[in-house]
Design a protein that fits this description.
The chain is built from nine helices and six strands. By secondary structure, it is an alpha+beta fold. The chain folds into two domains: about 80 residues, Phosphorylase Kinase, domain 1; about 120 residues, no CATH class.
Length: about 220
């Protein structure tokens, strides 16, 4: 739909109607958009591919925002619709299915275990700090303290009663950063095959649904 620069738009945030979190909002020519995914400066090609996938193939009204340090993709939404979303609506435009969040946490934990088993305590400590930085930088709900991050790294997400209320851009960002961090630690991308095996703990239907979403996500190709 649009490729815009930072000076073209107004970016603010609104309070979620039922949760203690802010929702990023972009406004352009009296239209409102919400954040879908964020890419770093080196991921211009991935950002453009994701934007084209949404606009050309899925017919969605989206904005690609170009900034010096990052790229971001935003999807059109009515602000009144956003503010009326209910707390328990897991299929609403903002909150992802719990099974998708669980799948991403399984991948995160699988990388964590791989680093512990193959690279040792020093690398594991560094990994924990890097993951904490990602959660803090991108303001992941329920991941804002060392204790919360420790639980996300160690508690089985399939057995917990409540998973974090993360949005699609959170999952996209986590998978992008997890791949980058894992590749830095292991020196190559061979770890992804081992890590993906962790999804076998999910039910067949949940795993298939997540993999369908992953294949359409901006970072899906590096995990396949």
């Amino acid at each position: 739909m649009f490729i815009l620069k930072r000076q073209d738009v107004d970016i603010s945030s609104v309070q979620h109607p039922s949760r203690d979190q802010k929702i990023p909002i972009l406004q352009y020519q009296e239209q409102t958009f919400r954040l879908l995914s964020v890419f770093n400066a080196a991921q211009e090609e991935d950002a453009r591919a994701f934007w084209r996938e949404l606009t050309d193939n899925r017919g969605k009204a989206c904005v690609l925002l170009e900034e010096p340090a990052r790229y971001s993709v935003w999807g059109k939404i009515r602000l009144s619709q956003l503010m009326s979303e209910g707390e328990d609506s897991q299929d609403s435009p903002d909150t992802m299915r719990p099974s998708y969040v669980q799948a991403c946490l399984l991948l995160l934990q699988a990388v964590y275990i791989d680093i512990e088993d193959l690279l040792g305590a020093r690398q594991l400590d560094l990994f924990e700090k890097e993951v904490m930085t990602v959660f803090q930088q991108w303001r992941f709900p329920k991941a804002d303290s060392p204790k919360a991050v420790e639980q996300l790294l160690t508690v089985d997400p399939l057995s917990t009663l409540q998973v974090p209320p993360w949005e699609e851009h959170h999952l996209n960002t986590l998978l992008q950063e997890l791949y980058r961090i894992g590749k830095d630690h292991f020196g190559n991308a061979s770890f992804t095959g081992r890590v993906m095996d962790a999804l076998q703990d999910m039910s067949d239907s949940d795993r298939k649904q997540f993999l369908t979403w992953l294949n359409q996500s901006p970072t899906g190709k590096v995990w396949r």
